[in-house]
Amino acid sequence: MDAAPKIDEPDPLSPLRPPSHNGAAPSTYRTNADVLNRAIQDIGMGRYQWQLFAVIGFGWASDNLWPIVTSLILVPVSYEFNVAQPPLLTLAQNIGLLVGALFWGFSCDLFGRRWAFNLTIGITAVFGLAAAGSPTFAAVGVFAALWSVGVGGNLPVDSAIFLEFLPGSHQYLLTVLSVNWALAQLLANLVAWPLLGNLTCSSVETCTKDNNMGWRYFLIAMGGMALLMCIIRWLFFTLYESPKYLMGRGRNEDAVTVVHEVARRNGKMSDLSLDHLDELMSVDDEEQAPRQGLSTSDQMRMLMEPLSLSHVKALFRTPRRAWSTGLMICIWTLIGLGFPLYNAFLPFLQQTRGVQFGDGSTYITYRNSLIIAAVGLPGSLVGGAMVELPRLGRKGTLSFAAVATGTFLLASTTASTSEALLSWNCAYSFTSSLLYAVLYSYTPEMFETKDRGTGNALVSAANRVGGILAPIIAIFASVQTTSPVGLIRYYLPGNEERVLVTSVEALNDILVLKATHFVKPDVVRQRLSYIAGNGLLLAEGETHKIQRKSLMPAFSFRHIKNLYPIFWAKAAELADCLEKELNDVSISESSKSDVIEVKKWATRATLDIIGLAGLGHDFDSLRSPNNALSRQYQQMRQDPSRLESSLEGALSLFSTQAAMLMLQIPTRRMRRVEDASSHIHRMCSDILKDMRNKNDLDTVKQGNGNIAAVTLRSGVLTDGELVDQMMTLLAAGHGTTSHALQWAVYALCKQPEIQVRLRKEVRSHLGPITDRQSAVSAADIDGLPYLHAVYSETLRFYPSVPSTIREALHDTTVAGHRIPKGTHFTISPAVINVNPDLWGPDADTFDPGRWLACDRRKEPPESCSRCLKTGKICSVDPSFKREKKREQLEAVRKELQQAKKRLRADSQQDQLSDDIVAETALVLRSGRNGRIRSSVHSPSMRDSQRVEVLLNDKTIGGVHLPASAIQDLLNE
User: Fold this and answer.
1) Where is the Major facilitator superfamily (MFS) profile domain positioned along the sequence (predicted)?
2) Residue-wise pLDDT tens digits, 97-133
3) What CA–CA distance (Å, rounded) separates 697 from 782?
4) What whole-number distance in Å separates Cα of residue 258 and Cα of residue 243?
5) Which CATH architecture has domain 26-277+310-477?
6) What architecture is domain 533-735?
7) Pairing of strands 518-519, 804-808
8) Is residue 906 within 8 Å of 947, Cβ to Cβ?
9) Residue 791 backbone phi and psi in degrees, to 5
10) How would you label 404-428 residue by residue, b for 16+ Cβ within 10 Å and e otherwise?
11) Residue ranges of domains in the chain
12) Does residue 380 contact residue 181 with C-beta atoms inside 8 Å?
């Protein structure tokens, strides 16, 4: 068994030393402490100790009760007073806890335990009751700080008292004592459920004092409970001063008297006498005589002599003791930081996440808090049993509880439903109660009796310092914000730097204005090349510009609109397949519910669609799931082995270069990926050959044709480059679209009201999907605003590519910050798309209505372009976008006309012909990067001259257009 530290036992080989002024010398003190330990053990666990166990439990309960009180009233108080920073209340509380821990902890070692024991809960009761009448948020904060001064003394004082009266055979009760900690949490939530659940306003807008009295009644109930505890301590229990404290102060006779009184209360006798204790220098005997005749100021100076650092220095007297004390201080600091960050804001988390999941009523919030508290109750009892197990003990139990608590805490962040969140929080509550039970008992056992109050004060103060930092973090990070806005710099375990981009300005720099300054890292390019080839997705620099220009005609609206019948036909085929499988599932005897897997059908449908629209080839994956192409992509998507996955994950954490190693190792999975990639490459080559043989170019000239055929007609790309583009179309086209379709189905299942509204809009505008004769055009789809809102919200809330990486090619700047060459940026739409600073306070809610917020009948178009800047991003339907684009194109054409006029004026001055001017104006339309150069020559000129026109960034129609965007408009 990992027994408690025997810190009070003397070393039998150590010589006795004379006492020091501030108590006994270490060896003498330990010898006499051992005598008192044996005397307490001989008396045994009796009536006095059991009564002490009960009243000490009040302090244990108070230590957890009042921080929970603060967390439970945080939301209603912030609603009533319309507080911008609610965590300030928690900050005030933790400042009071810090003051209380230091004051009571040091005082009980200097002036005794008894007086502190009786005052702490009384102070808490008085100011807790007074807080119920607070007229302002500041008043609530002041009273919270004052009641916390009393609460802060419970741990250092009560644990020292109980341990010093407890027989060694029953020290496990110090762990069991923490059951009061869990009971307090249960009791607080039990009282809060009816009061706060029914007498709390639901929002800031509708909150008044009259409809928000729940938190005031709750404080009265908790303050009254604390007052009752104080009365019981004062009137129904007599606490004796700790005999070990008295002995440490040189008052041996008083110590012996206390031991005999405890024995008498237990109905026993003690043979302890003054002769059993070594003679110690009695501070009272030495100082009493000299004090007679001294002035008041001299007497006060002598009374303050004990206020030295001797008790603190004793905690660090030896390297081992210094290490133990320092480690315990660090542990309590971290717990003080983590506990308020999670537990103090748990009701807020429950309520806000509940709203997201559709059940965020105040009543449900406090009901869940009660359930969580009830589950934590057995943790203390289990901890008391585990510390006595031979192979586990205190250290083993503490380690297990810490690991389990951290695991469940991290797991709670993965919850996608309120039920899952409640389950993880219940598991966390149980293990954290076990953790606290062991830690509360283990801490005071580490310190010698004469320094125990000081040691408890230090660790308790460290805990409160962490508690002060917690609300400060919450204030600056905001409990509603997923991440700060800007550039967040962090390091991988291998000391490789990363920068997370969370601002629109930085994104605009990296992806638009300075896109040529950044590339995908080699490891990303190599990994994606197996799946997507070396097409547009992986091209960089000048190559990317050429490929993009060659592909743009194929993606123009006038061409894409001709592909809508393909989309509709395959959607109808998908509906048939789903209906057939549902019928098969319904009649199957082994099936227990009408459930089908959407993932496989979404993947097959999108693969067929991109095959027809992109390559002009029907892979027929919906009807033939085992076709060659589907099998190859299944090979690529096959999960790696556990060993390979673990190794890859570990290496990727350390550095990009380390992750490259996995791509070079010829594992079975990598061989399969390479084989599948080669097979898809050959398949695309064969399709390209068939395309040439069938003379699909004639179809293109007629305004029809697939994307690959349109690109082939341009003649810019070689066959090898075109095959790479076809691989990119297949992989990127069906993969991301399939993910979006799956998430859209998931979102509609989670919110049936959205599904009903969307179905109503579609069925009222489009014909039945079973009608194969009905044709759906681009105009039909454009007339479905709610459909556009749903898929826009799906792409925002469930981005198909949650994150990607860019690397700086050279020194540059991003959002005003200097960026050195080689810096890696993590671009995460999953983070940015739920940022309240950009999308409003409901950013973490799936709400298609946000995309309908700009009503063009009531607001000018410019207002929509400002939605991003005001923190509410919205969109408009495609018809409005096209109108906006026409306005922009017209403005650009005017710019070109002005440039042409300037050229004509220059030509008259330089005697250039009109033909040369016209030729130069045409060059303006095919230039790249906004900087257009053309060599012109006139027979009348002696030398060739270069005419340079700069196409700069423009603000057109209230929208900022970079030069590259203007060029895109021209290309269309």
Assistant:
1) 50-520
2) 888 888 887 777 777 788 888 788 899 999 999 999 9
3) 29
4) 6
5) Up-down Bundle (1.20)
6) Orthogonal Bundle (1.10)
7) antiparallel
8) yes
9) -75, -30
10) bbeebbeebeebeebeebbbbbbbb
11) 26-277+310-477, 533-735, 879-971
12) yes
